[in-house]
Amino acid sequence: MSEIITKQQNELAKLIKRYSVQDGVHATAIPTLFFIRRSKLTGPSYGVYKPSLCIVVQGAKEVWLAQERFKYDPADYLIASVDLPVTAQVTEASSDIPYLGFRLEFTASEILEVLSDSKIRITPKGNAERAMFVGEMELPIMDSILRLARLLDNPKDIPFLAPIYTKEILFRLLQGQYGVALAQIAMEGSCTYGIRDAIEQISNNYDKPLRIEELAEIASMSISSFHRHFKEVTAMSPIQFQKQLRLQVARRLLLTESADAADVAFRVGYESPSQFSREYSRMFGFPPRQDIKRLRA
Predict the structure, then answer these.
(1) What are the chain's domains?
(2) CA dihedral (203, 204, 206, 211) positive or negative
(3) d(CA 197, CA 262)
(4) What would the pLDDT profile of 24-33 be if each residue is shown by its tens digit?
């Protein structure tokens, strides 16, 4: 990594520290930009990554997508190009040198707008690709990231300049080593585009029975092609994808509401509380009641 990038990351680290004094995920005055700070190593955390650019400014992190592990640190960037249920863990952090992260969310329509305005020539691909990847940080990407973050010190400029700088970041990513893969989410006719629509359908109806025929039709694919391409994009089957969403929502409900496990199981779409308990234990390591008691301790 070049000395210039290191210098820019040091500046960005100071910005993040200033706008995230305590540990946690911090929203900023730029609605799509979030800063993350952790002063100690964390256990696994579960969530859904929206389409986003994630960078580690200080420390290191691992993200698991099904059985695949993605490791990244200040030399890298991570992109999730569709909604993906993941497990993440900070692997380098201390009170003296806290983990500092930067996350910028984006949409397929923003990608399409950049492709259209910039005249970048990318054709739809017949084969889907994994929707998560780690690339090597490059100076043009870091330049544009820092420009966006600096706007926080000039809030009156954010409404006009933040969309412009965000487009610049996406433009640089589309020119980078994974630009072709990223572009597919916005290109009608690509397999990733079809799978993205199916993912949206599952996410909006996670508590309903899964209808593969309907999902394949939404993706404009045969059932066999849909199964193959869905796993290529997400590293899991549609049923596994839905199960992760259900269990993550269930855990959140158990933490925030005074509801019992059986009630929550039915609310997220399970017909059998015992099956829910088994699958919950398999994913989180403890039965629902014991897990929530542990988290609240």
Answers:
(1) 3-184 (2.60.120), 240-296 (1.10.10.60)
(2) negative
(3) 31
(4) 999 999 999 9
